[in-house]
Amino acid sequence: MHVLIVHNAAIPVFTYGGTERVVWNLGRKLVELGHRVTYLVPEGSHCDFARLLPLQPDKPWHTQVPDDVDLVHFHFDPRLASDDALGKPFVFTEHGNAHRARPLPRNTIFLSRDHAARYGSSEFVHNGLDWAAYGPVDFDRPRSYVHFLGKGIWSVKNLPGAIAVARLANVELDVLGAYRFSFRRGLRLTLSRRVRFHGMVGGREKSELLNGSRGIVFPVRWHEPFGLAVIESLYFGCPVFATPYGSLPELVPQDCGVLAADADSLAEALRTRRFDARACHAHAVHHFGAETMARGYLRSYERVLAGEALNPAPPAIRGEARSLPWRG
To answer: Does the structure show a pLDDT above 50 at 246?
Structure first.
């Protein structure tokens, strides 16, 4: 099968770029499974296992799709006039939470069971990562701090809530994905020296920090579509202390963390609960690897190529996905 993967950000990625990391891992694994992959991505991208074509937003989609492609996989909404306007079978992965209930293509795939259900769908493929790229886990290293991992300027990620949990639990917090001082989306200055900021980190620095943490504090205030930060942390043996929103109950079994919508409960869990780091690691490896993700998408591709529509009607978001309750 020849799959054209379309994304509107350059690949590969080093620091944040969660969707780009998934797009890269998916293409690589499809090639390893014997399929052909071409990427349609912005200039500046590079790849050693697949052909690259430059994304040209000002040109019609059908002029950018090679004739020998069997199926197109969009990772952002192409805004096609109709589901047959492309002239090729295609699927679209919704990676976020829409701000309004606009109908999506019928062949839309979501990131979790909860994510799909909130759009009136049952079609989802969990994200997966290439764990070999993250390096080994040091289970014998002393772990004295907890961490927050996410784009701290996004209010839905609730960095202030994570700081409050760490303060109540009397534990140091390392913040990956934000800076101590920020003007963006409102002034924020964190004075506590028990909170260390590392900015947008990746590669060896990120792995080193996660290898020294005893848990991720992740009190999001939206229905998290998936949560790459969660599975990355689990891979490094870090239990999860988070809110019970969106996909998180799917990702975090009881032996890998605690879910609660208030700072006191999460802080109490940090003070008193202990989890098996090896069990957290095994859960991530077994359930959220890149090959599991790729095989899930292949099953969807085959259904679409056989003429099936993945959703009986165009899915659209239902209900509020943001500003969810938090007591902190």
So the answer is: yes
Whether 54 contacts 78, CB under 8 Å: no
CATH topology of domain 2-129+291-305: Rossmann fold (3.40.50)
Nearest to 286 by CA among 134, 135, 109, 129: 129
Rg (CA), the chain: 20
Give me the helix-helix angle, 263-272 and 159-169, nearest 10°: 50
- Could you read off the pLDDT of 95-136 as tens digits, one per residue? 999 988 999 999 999 999 999 999 999 999 999 999 999 999
Q: What's the confidence (pLDDT) of residue 19?
A: 92
d(CA 150, CA 133): 19
User: Could you give the angle at the alpha carbon of 286 between the alpha carbons of 284 and 24, nearest 5°?
Assistant: 70
What span, in angstroms and rounded, lies between the C-alpha atoms of 203 and 107? 34
- 73 Cβ partners below 8 Å, 6+ apart? 3, 4, 5, 6, 90, 91, 92, 93, 297, 301
Of 145, 143, 202, 133, nearest to 170 (Cα)? 145
Separation between Cα atoms, residue 265 and residue 172, nearest integer Å: 17
1.50.10.20, 3.40.50.1220, 3.40.50.2000, 1.10.10.60: which CATH number matches 135-286?
Answer: 3.40.50.2000
Partnered with residue 175 across adjacent β-strands are 148, 197
Strand partners, 242: 218, 259
Query: What whole-number distance in Å separates Cα of residue 312 and Cα of residue 293?
Result: 23
Angstrom distance (rounded) from CA 324 to CA 220: 8
**β-sheet bridge partners, residue 189:** 181
What pLDDT is attached to residue 260? 98
279 has pLDDT over 90:
yes
Of 249, 245, 248, 205, nearest in space to 229 by CA: 248
The band of 179, judged by pLDDT with boundaries at 50, 70 and 90, is confident
- Residue 187, pLDDT score: 46
153/4 Cα distance (integer angstroms)? 33
User: What are the structure tokens assigned to 257, written together?
Assistant: 């963390």
Domain boundaries, the chain: 2-129+291-305, 135-286
